[in-house]
Q: What sequence folds into this?
């Protein structure tokens, strides 16, 4: 370690993002992006006139974007905060709601970034294993006295917790904040947003990276009681007040206002997912029941790591986690039907070889 | 305070950014933006083809942008990290280089955000007063055993420390990191960048918000030894790996490659600054010797707060800090000659009234 590093920085647990090759040579199914370009409204909104204003700071309150999001989700702007991707807002939530005397819990198999961010703030997290079948049972969290992070649907399994279960968690301890990370909720799972006015301890995280085709724009948002949102703003103004840039504010607002495009894109992903699952099951794969824009699949005939490597050699990028309980699986983003057909063809060919 | 807040979040010291009215009714000289639009190269680079790729994540390594910056400053890409504005990188530096046993020092009168970020990480900062004439004397830092942040030129004074003084600090303790925040260096001050290969404990922060007309794009960068940059990347990958969005990567690279535009813009600001200083001095103002794109000025005939309010009533926005030692002054961004003429006219009119 460098002699310059603080003790706190030595103890960090940096996250390894999925491969992002900058040439376009792969069928890229490894980082859960949308295969569709952003809404035509986004392209129109990012006008030359707006580009000419890049010399001026963005609005630190993100008023136009927060209002657009509030309208879409039938909330007030005071119930919304936007971030430089939901990763940033997750970090703000760790700082706002966890610390000395306020522990944090999350699942053993879930979004790997929670661990990195807990380490960023020097928190000792309580890791609660998923059940044997990869379900998250909220009963396992009922007595936990600190803040809870639940990815719903979960990653990389794609499996969702019913809203009624989250409700039980919220009611069991009204002083405990429950953060429901709904990055993947728009592909068929039940959102907790309708419960926001009822439970002031519920914070819902969403992102425009998946269902709104803006991964490259970095727009995440959190929805919750005015009290929770004020707490997150307190953190934001201590870290980076101008956290969302001008063009992302504009793009995000235009994206969230284009409901028909959103419905068309998320509908297509669900269709393509159903097709892919059927085809892979026909090839003998076990596929966990996904409500996300990815699936988690394994074959008894080829180990996960080998499948990942061979697919990559043949131009198809999926994600493999070399970790306990999941190393038999690969995570496959649901892309266009053409991309999924390429995946299925290649998987079939590889299985013939083994 | 909210019952949900962590103790750590209660102790935060959120920063108050300058006013950002979202209508264009003011001559806006309060947040040190460039009065010039971004380089024509930036507009060209933000093409429709690039907008169509917003569904894909940005490159977490920011390779294209870091390479462009490295070329401009005659460094290697391993000497560069980019951030979501330099505010984010300053925070990363606080986490990387300060903590238990590694204190932090900065001036009493300097960029207010250092205090917010020190609080974000729960650090007890050592605040070292500027001398009576607002100069920062590095002798006052010589024996400080922790990490040092120096804004150079300083804000809101605009006054600069000679490179040779920073060099003495670097040499006095090779195990101590010195962070030189050069947000405003491009308007006439001496940059420490030429010393990077010589001192591995030197980190230089810069931003494209001022001299490169990209405040709305949020592009900051840090330059330093590969060891310091690796430490910052360790923090970045623990906080937000995709911290710079696609369009800002593109815009930043195009901006840094347009040297003639940069020279033209920064030259114009220096001319306009000289003119404004002469005019204000002719009106009896005291103006600190600024090497930044703003000036810090006071009149014995009108208190700073009153001058700020009256200018605002008359459509001119400047910044006033209601704080010890500086409340007699206003900080005025150097904009276009037309904007500065409007300021000088209005200041003259107000002085006639008192």
A:
């Amino acid at each position: 370690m460098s002699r310059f590093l603080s003790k706190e920085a030595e103890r960090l647990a940096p996250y390894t993002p999925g491969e992002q090759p900058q040439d376009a040579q792969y069928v890229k199914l490894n980082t859960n992006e949308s295969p569709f370009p952003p809404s035509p409204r986004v392209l129109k909104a990012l006008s030359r006139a707006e580009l000419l204003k890049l010399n001026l700071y963005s609005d630190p309150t993100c008023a136009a974007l927060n209002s657009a999001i509030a309208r879409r989700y039938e909330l007030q702007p005071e119930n919304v905060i936007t971030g430089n991707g939901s990763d940033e807002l997750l970090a703000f939530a760790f700082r706002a709601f966890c610390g000395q005397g306020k522990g944090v819990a999350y699942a053993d198999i879930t979004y790997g970034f929670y661990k990195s961010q807990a380490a960023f703030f020097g928190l000792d997290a309580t890791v609660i294993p998923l059940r044997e079948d990869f379900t998250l049972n909220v009963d396992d969290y009922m007595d936990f006295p600190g803040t809870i992070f639940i990815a719903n649907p979960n990653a990389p399994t794609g499996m969702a917790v019913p809203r009624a279960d989250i409700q039980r968690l919220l009611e069991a301890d009204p002083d405990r904040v429950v953060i429901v990370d709904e990055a993947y909720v728009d592909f068929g799972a039940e959102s907790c947003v309708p419960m926001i006015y009822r439970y002031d301890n519920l914070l819902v995280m969403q992102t425009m990276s998946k269902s709104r085709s803006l991964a490259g724009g970095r727009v995440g948002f959190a929805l919750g009681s005015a009290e929770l949102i004020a707490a997150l703003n307190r953190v934001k103004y201590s870290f980076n007040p101008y956290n969302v840039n001008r063009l992302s504010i504009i793009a995000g607002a235009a994206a969230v206002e284009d409901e028909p495009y959103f419905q068309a894109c998320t509908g297509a992903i669900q269709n393509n997912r159903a097709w892919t699952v059927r085809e892979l099951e026909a090839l003998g794969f076990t596929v966990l029941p996904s409500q996300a824009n990815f699936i988690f699949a394994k074959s008894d005939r080829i180990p996960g790591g080998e499948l990942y490597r061979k697919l990559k050699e043949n131009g198809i990028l999926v994600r493999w986690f070399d970790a306990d309980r999941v190393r038999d699986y690969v995570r496959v983003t649901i892309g266009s039907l053409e991309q999924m057909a390429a995946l299925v063809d290649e998987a079939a060919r590889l299985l013939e070889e083994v």
Observations:
- The mean pLDDT of chain A is 97.
